[in-house]
Amino acid sequence: MSQNTPLLTTSAGAPVADNQNTLTAGPRGPVLMQDFWLIEKMAHFNRERIPERVVHAKGSGAYGTLTITHDISKYSRAKIFAKVGTAAETFLRFSTVAGEKGAADAERDPRGFALKIYTEEGNWDIVGNNTPVFFVRDPLKFSDFIHSQKRDPQTNLRSNVAAWDFWSLSPESLHQVTILMSERGIPRNYREMHGFGSHTYSFINAIGERYWVKFHFKSLQGITYFTDQEAAQIVGQNRESAQADLFHSIADGKFPRWRFAVQIMPEAAADGYKVNPFDLTKVWPHADYPLIDVGVLELNRNPQNYHAEVEQAAFTPANIVPGIGHSPDKMLQARILSYPDAQRYRLGVNYQSLPVNAPRCPVMHYHRDGAMRFDGNGGGSVNYEPNTRGGPTECPAFAEPPLKISGDAARYNHRDGNDDYTQAGNLFRLMTPDAKERLIGNIGRHITGVPQEIQFRAICHFFRADPAYGMGIANFLKLDISQFMPPGGKP
Hints:
Blueprint: H1 36-46, E1 59-68, E2 87-96, E3 111-119, E4 122-129, H2 142-149, H3 160-168, H4 174-180, E5 195-196, E6 201-204, E7 210-219, H5 228-237, H6 241-251, E8 257-266, E9 292-301, H7 306-311, E10 324-325, H8 330-347, H9 422-430, H10 433-447, H11 452-465, H12 467-477
Antiparallel strand pairs: 1-2, 1-9, 2-3, 3-4, 5-7, 6-7, 6-10, 7-8, 8-9
Helix pairs in contact: 2-3, 3-11, 4-9, 10-12, 11-12
């Protein structure tokens, strides 16, 4: 053995004398309980798989840099925006949404776009998708929606019946369904797709003014997609097609980049705007609120260990920094709780101390103990506040200005008076004839075999978005919709 060869040890650091043979009573056994190295290896092996994420289970990630190229300091007092040229380390995790950890990359599914920005004021997480909207706007429906996309409790099979049953009973999903079933539903890879914060957040500037903001990451590689037929062929060849593309592109020095831009709405403009600006199923038209350039995101370093850096990466929209805040978006409000709660269950209460999640700035709080506390646990320092023993103190200068709230506490019907068709119809009308044909074919194939009652219910929503949209799917399915046609023949 070379003098430079490292010694194998137990987790406690003790040298392992024999890693080939179990300790037994005689050459034929039985095995002795005192073989602590065997027990340690077996016990650790049984626990190598942490619970996978309930959603976004299949993912790929890389480190990079966010460089600020334009001055937006008049909108936000966040230090990252204080000076053009500021650069911050980032970690970006891409994912599919509905599939399990072993799902194929080239499946029709939204893609997660979760960005951790390690700023000098703490970690700022933007946890979004490759779509600017989502299927539901009320968090009470989120788990129901996810259940409809997951496996049937009896057959353990994915069920298009469940998916379309839910979507057809939830008209607010039509906008996202149109995106999902369009060409954008199967990105070729993670480099050639856009990313969105999706939710509405807020900026606070140095004089305490609030702005509502949406985050956009536009791929500078362009955007590309697979057809259903192309994706089926790719899945048969490589279930990790997007992960392989990302890893090898970065390894070869072909660093992907995104243009980082924002839409900005003055706080007072929200009340009179034509749509609810905090509705996750709606976009802000760029004609009303054009994109404002902020910077460039580049991915330029692959992780060294997938489990440590990608599987254990944990994101939450609760992670904000001074000058960046939340909004009354109901889905965002719920995610502020659900995301860190899921990570505490999956990784443990000290998950934010893991290297990939740890801030790159000093951390000072009174959290103590808990499973897997692997630092000094605060040593002998004081663990309560207020105190007179030199512990960290609050800083009122970072408080956000008050947000005016009004209305009676009640369970308001989020579908009453809500137009869930115009934006979906506008998206359909923007498509080329070929793109419309592919959209209708994708939906038609997906909904084929679903009970006719559900098909008719879904088609009613497509008609309301655009008559040609509904008629195209009805014709694809060869459905007689005359029973739904009023006198005159117009739907």
